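User: Predict the complex.
Assistant: Input components as received:
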Amino acid sequence: MPGILLGDKFPDFEADTTIGRIKFHKFLGDSWGILFSHPKDFTPVCTTELACAAGLGDKFAKRGVKMIALSVDSVEDHRGWSKDVMAFSSQASSPLPFPIIADDKRVLANQLGMLDPDEIDGDGIPLTARCVFVIGPDKRLKLSILYPATTGRNFDELLRVIDSLQLTAQKKVATPVDWKPGDKVMVLPNVSDAEAATLFPNGVTTKEVPSGKKYLRYTQL
Ligand code: BEZ
């Protein structure tokens, strides 16, 4: 079955894009990367998503994340659509701040398991679902999400997730439900109390639960 799993090396594909032909790993360099796919150019939900992503470009850049979109149309269509997107986001004089991959033959969509069988184009061929892949500087897949074409994504949530991925890549912590940067984090279950005491100088607090097990350990970084 096509697709890619967490921890897999992300394919170093070559593709035509709105900034020319790229090799994906070279495009990423030492940065983190986010690749998000769209069902089709010149469609309403996709346009709102791309406009939102364009507006958040500085926030992704601040986190050292290179953005790239994908849709199953040609570079020429992508260029025309990009102008609509920037006009929709009231920045008509600026270019779209990230490239769009032209996957009109659906080579990557197939390879990465991105097709949505419920969304068919005029020729009866499936369109791409709304996939998100976050790739680490080691070129391994750190996160994937897959929405159907009929449900738009929340790009603020993607920034929040990237904050968690980048934090938990550095420290032996995990982020709890609805965590936001600055909130308390949880000590990983495989860290002993003795190690936690040395790793987290701000202290560790443990929430008591009926089982008496001491697994709900919080710290403030
Ligand atoms: C949209 O972007 O609006 C869309 C595209 C394909 C199927 C459904 C919605």
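Residues 39-40, 43-46, 119, 127, 149-150 surround benzoic acid (CB under 6 Å).
Let me know if you want any component modeled separately.
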